[in-house]
Amino acid sequence: MAKLELIHLNKTYTPKVIPVKDLSLSVNDGEFLTLLGPSGCGKSTTLRLIAGLEQPTRGAIRIGEQDVTHKSPGDRNIAMVFQSYALYPHMSVYDNMASGLKLRKMSSEDIRQRIEEVSHFLGLDPLMQRKPGQLSGGQRQRVALGRALVRQPDVFLLDEPLSNLDALLREQVRAELKEIFEAQNTPVVYVTHDQTEAMTLSSKVAVLNNGDLQQLDPPRRIYTHPANRFVAGFIGSPQMNLLELTCEEKFTILGDSRIPLPKGFVPPPEITLGIRPEHVRLANPEDTYSIQGRVVLMENLGMSDLLSVRVKGANNITVRTLLPADQPWREEEIALAFPPESIHWFHRQTGDRLPADTLQVVR
Questions:
Q1: Cα separation values, 311 from 101, 291, 332, Å
Q2: Tens digits of per-residue pLDDT, 155-174?
C-alpha cells in the first residue's frame, strides 16, 4: 500500500488561468479524500495531475516512496473511474474487466481469479458475458469500478462517477461505493461538486475555490466549523444564513434585536453572522433575545418546512429556518431564536472565521 502526497502543486496555463495554485495535502492508506468545490475550482485538474494526464507547472507528486511527478500514467500504478464509464462497447463485461490485466501480461488463471473475486463482491456474476449496451447505468458503473478494483492499484482516482445516474440509483450506488472502499486499504481521491456525496463517502474533504485550498478536514468538522465564509455558504443544504450586519459596542444589530458578539472581539462597523436554517428555531418566552419577522415563503420538504422570514425592522434581510412539518407556526408573524452555540462569525472583509477562543457569548 502507498501514501499519496501532493507537495506545493501548481498548474498554470496563462497568468490569468491558474486552476491549481499551491496545493499541498496527503492521503494515507485507507483514507477517502474528496475534492469538493464549484465548477472551475481546480478539482478535476488536480485529479488529472495525479493521474499523469497533465504535467504540473511546479510542485511534486509522490506515491509511497516514489516521486511520480514526471512518470507516465502507465507507470504510476493508479486506477481511474470516469464519469462516462469508458467501457469498450464491443467487449463483454469479463473482457472489459480483464483488459488492463492483459496489458500487464498477467496469466489467464491469475486474471480469472482476480475477476471472480471482484465480480462476486460487486454482484456482477450473472452479467459477465453481456456487453455494455445490454446493461443499466448502475450495472455499467459497477463494471467500471470492477475494472479498477481488479488492478489492485496503489491509488484509486474517481472523477464524478455518479453524475450520470438518476437520483434514486445514485443513492444506491453511493452506498455501494462506501462499502467497496471501506473494504480496501488504498488511498482514494474522489472528485465531485455534490456535497452529499462528499459528506457521506469521505474520511477527509478538501474544499477548493479558484485553485486555492479553503479547508481540509473530516466532513463533520467542515460542517460544524467552516474555515471561512465561502466554506460556510458552500457546505450545507439548505444553505447557511449569512447575514451582513452592523455592530454597536458589544452587539450586532438585526432588525429590532441586539445579538451579543464574541467575547474579546473588537468589532468593525460590519460583520457577517452565519447560522444554519436547521439551527434557527421558534422562540420560547425564556429566550434572552429573539427576532420578529413575517413568513414570506414556505417550501414543503416532506419531513420539514423551509420558511423564509423577512426580519422586522431590517432592510431586505431574510432568514431561513427549517422546522419539523408537525411543528405549529401557522401565524404569518413569528418570532425566531438563534441559539448562541450555533452562531458562526466571519470577518466581513476577509471572510475568515473568527478564532475559536473568541467564541464565547457575552451575557
A1: 63, 7, 12
A2: 999 998 887 777 777 788 78
